[in-house]
Amino acid sequence: MTGMKKLLKTMATIGVLILTLNMYGQSPMPDSLRFELLLTPAMVDNIHPEGKLTGSVEITPGKLLLLSSANQFYLLGWGGIVPMAGKVSGDIGSFAYTSDSLLMVIRNNELCTFGSDGNLTRLYTLPSADMGISPGRLVMYIYDRDPDKEKKSVFIIAHGGQYSKLFDVPSPVYSVAEMGDFIFFPNNNMVFRYNILNKEMKAIAALPEGIVIKSVVTDPVTGRIYFSTDNSVFSIKDKNISVINDKLGGVLRFFDGLIVYNPDKKVLVHISGLENAIEKAGKTKAPQTSAQGKKILTNQSVIDLKKNGLSDDLIISLIKRNKVDFNLSVDSVIEPSDSNISSEVIKSMRQAMQRQGDDNGNNR
User: 264: exposed, middle or buried (C-beta count within 10 Å: 0-12, 13-18, 19+)?
Assistant: First the structure.
């Protein structure tokens, strides 16, 4: 009877969540779109974890969700959340399942396996104590999350346990996702695509400076890529960026829909029916930041975006979404032209300045 009460309480909370999203201005949800609130602050408080929940979530071989605090794993399902095995020694930093269902755990600066007896067995000593791990189809990816390290690296671990460095980047890496011959990862305010075969790296999406992208996942069936900040979730496909949710972000996983997990807010949501909803809604506008934090694009901003590998379509999209302060005098246009900025982008810069001037005139 207690389990039934928990289930009814959870279902009631789901209804409140859906209502709340509509009140916040979320687009009307097609019949196929469904939000399921699977974890609430009250559920977390009931288990009395020691310290905060870690920023990892995985799907177990039994199709449950695996969460953790620093020293305890938890299983989350429709019946609630319960501890898995006993407490572990050391601090759990990140974890992920291999393709053959072996749970690999980063504890302090060690890569470990989690055995059926509930104990961690060390495999390797890692270069840093603050590293994350993500699964691939045949390999695992380990990456530096420590902002104080001069170089942040992404490593690949093949079967047999050997690991090697793929590349270095300037900012912490918080997530890696795989699709085909590509891996995708966020770095600062951008999402990058890395070709494992030819080692080519290219930025495919960008948010205004000052906004940090924390997680990325892929849907191999549709080819859609999802990425998130602490407060918002986006998707990109065929260069079209859509806003999934601008009220809740966090750690993403994809399993029969999108899982959004925010350990700081103690909330986990499962969103299904996304592809149909996105296709029906078409391309949507990216959320605007506050007036104080909104990025103002300049000539140099556009040059920097081009140097970072963004396509013309994405640069034009950013120009249309943000405030601008371009200098388009004859002498000033020479610099973008010398930096391989296309005529289409320069045309968009002119149109943005004209449009912004018209808006300012109408607001007087």
Answer: exposed
CB 138 within 8 A of CB 150: no
End-to-end CA distance of the chain: 64
How far apart are alpha carbons 296 and 301 in whole angstroms? Answer: 9
Give Cα 21 to chain centroid, integer Å: 20
Find out whether 345 and 315 touch, Cβ atoms under 8 Å.
yes
* 147 HSE (CA, 13 A, CB side): 3
Do residues 101 and 86 touch, judged by C-beta distance below 8 A? Answer: no
The domains located in the chain, with CATH, are 2-281 (2.120.10.30), 296-362 (no CATH)
Mean pLDDT by 10 residues, the chain (364 residues): 37 35 35 81 92 94 94 90 90 94 94 88 88 93 92 86 85 95 94 92 90 95 95 90 87 95 95 82 44 65 76 79 80 67 87 78 54
pTM greater than the 0.85 cutoff: no
